[in-house]
Amino acid sequence: MSRLHASQRQAIVNCAVYDRAGRRRDIPIDAISEELTQDDGRFVWIGLYEPDEAVLDVLQEEFGLHDLAVEDAHKAHQRPKLETYGHGLFIAVHTAQRIAGEVRFGETQIFAGPRYLVTVRHGASLSYAPVRQRLEREPERLALGPAAALHGVLDFIVDNYQAIVATYADALDTLEQDIFAEHYQRGTIERLYRLRKDLTRMRLAVLPMQDILAQLERSAALPVPDEIRPYLRDVHDHAAREGDTIDTLREMVAAAMNVNLSLVTVYQGEIVKKLAGWAGLLAAPTLIASWYGMNFDHMPELHGRWSYPLLIVGVLLVCVGLYRYLRRIDWL
Description:
Layout lengths: L5 H4 L2 E7 L5 E3 L5 H5 L6 E7 L3 H11 L3 H9 L5 E5 L2 E12 L2 E12 L2 E8 L5 H8 L2 H4 L3 H34 L6 H33 L10 H63 L15 H22 L4
Helix pairs in contact: 3-4, 7-8, 7-9, 8-9, 9-10
């Protein structure tokens, strides 16, 4: 009889055993220990999504998992890392997924040993069912043991990084057009800030992955067949490339923010110049008109027949001349 309730078993996405030929057979979680007693090259691959303590306790009993690793897998919110506990590995990585047009981040904890692989997903994380299906079409790969399945999972995560980083690059291209738009848009700098924030979070996921893959190639806790090592190095190269791309994008976003703020300053300076130009243009007739508001008795031009029209013409000539000068120096 199962030790788990129906609601708890829902956290178990897949539980299967693969023989030395790479053929799959689904098993209940309580039968794991029986399968592991058969020393014929078979291994167990389990996929979980946000399991509770009861599920992890069963797995700890079946596989002999370390208490600290089980605690980390239950609480999640771990930094990316690789820890060795006896003859098993505990790997924590961050994942990314596009949901409703936004990039959200989750975590995957992985228990790996010579006879088993357990993936525990938390939050935003794509299912690893496509990885399992692809490997099952290549049973000769699964015949190499848990290291082959682990490579498939890590390669899937890094490939998803690549897709997310590509969307960031496209978003930056779009924002560059808004930066050089004719009119300033407050939303542009806000989107640039959010993009840099997301790139920083993505960087915190991708860079540790490089260290994890490098440690995995040297780890003695999980036997990695020689046939799998080139594939792990390939995943490491992809992770390194995505890390470099993220760093480049972060620098470009920072430059874009500075350019945007500089353009805003220039735009504001142009507005101040135009205001100063119009103020100067209005100052000339104001100054002339103010002379005739001082109530002087002895102003001979006031008594002439054409004094008023001549004054108007003089004011207009001064204004037109000043206007043309300000236009020539690009103040209007």
